[in-house]
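[job 4417] fold queue: 2 targets
>>> target A
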Amino acid sequence: MPLRAQLDEIDRRIINELQGGFPLVERPYAAVARELGISEADLIARLKRLLEIGAATRFGPMYHAERMGGAVMLAALAVPEARFEEVAALVNAYDEVAHNYKRAHKYNMWFVVAAETPERIEEVLQDIEARTGLSVLRAPKLKEYFIGFRVPV
């Protein structure tokens, strides 16, 4: 069954509602549930289901590392297919690696490195290069964009 067919109106409203923020109150799930006209338990169960079926890939805060004194960089590797799983395991083993995505492109592995300093990011990337024998494409953030995702209700 297509993913869209698995989402009812309330699921779509949850996806839309939670992209704009999460209330900083004693019972945030209860507050959001009230806005949606459902129970707190139903909201939590629906969030778990949205994650399980892949309608949501993550649910949690988005931190601005730079505003907290840290640094972030998007990086990519052109990994031979036969080595993809090996290299992915190596890259993902770094505490500084936040996300790792496989893409159909010459650069088929894209990942985000977040660290306390730009120097630490460079240390991690140099270590990945030394351990894999592959050159890391560095794509520093020049400007930040927020692209809101809304689903029709």
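>>> target B
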Amino acid sequence: MRLPAQLWAGAALSGVFVAAALISLIWTPHPVEGMNIAARLKVPGDGFVLGTDHFGRDILSMLMVGAQTSIAVAVVAVGIGMAAGVPLGLLGAANRGGWIDEIVMRGNDLVFAFPSLVIAILITAVFGPSAVNAILAIGIFNIPVFARVTRGGALSLWTLDYILAARVAGKGRLRISVEHILPNVANLLIVQGTIQFSLGILAEAGLSYVGLGAQPPVPSWGRMLAESQTMISFAPHLALLPGMAIVLTVLGLNLMGDGLRDVLDPRLRRAR
């Protein structure tokens, strides 16, 4: 089977930033916490590949560690959303039209009423700003997303003949959901997980931008943008570089999600 071009392009873009995050675990060109006031605001190529910030810190090193921060937050947040949302979606679909389904869906509507930024503000008001609290906020917001996707995919399967045959054979709703429904909605969850991963990186950058995400001295793309906004007129690279990192990472993940949808959706395969 020929893989779509956008899948290759998205995987290549995403792979660059994943590789940068992995490499930063063991090596960076310069210490990310090392300040060198004598080398502050160096332009790219002037002894530093991507220049330095207003504290003389190497921007390339900060971008590499910032990728580590963004990816870690997004992965854990998506994991929280899937771990809680998928069972809720399966439970709602297995009891469609009943009071359990109604409780699940109204709970989803309640969470959807509060964007991740509002949830983060509520959490940080109690526990203080941190990367952990950003993960909780993004993860909580992801729960109803995965619950709705799972429920929507599962509802279309519960009326099929092989599900009716499983029920006639004496299988309970829980067993049918695990053995028959979940494997057949996995393609939807993979695609949605890729999309939510990109949105998680955006959300982490946004929370860090307003001071609710990862705290100093941990580098973050969002905080790099926030710190550079007053210097954009004479040091535009301070804002352009982390901004481009966010844009390219999200673009790569979205392209990969589109490619995975084309590969995993049987209707699209038949149309090709």
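[job 4417] complete. Note on B: The first helix runs from residue 5 to 24.
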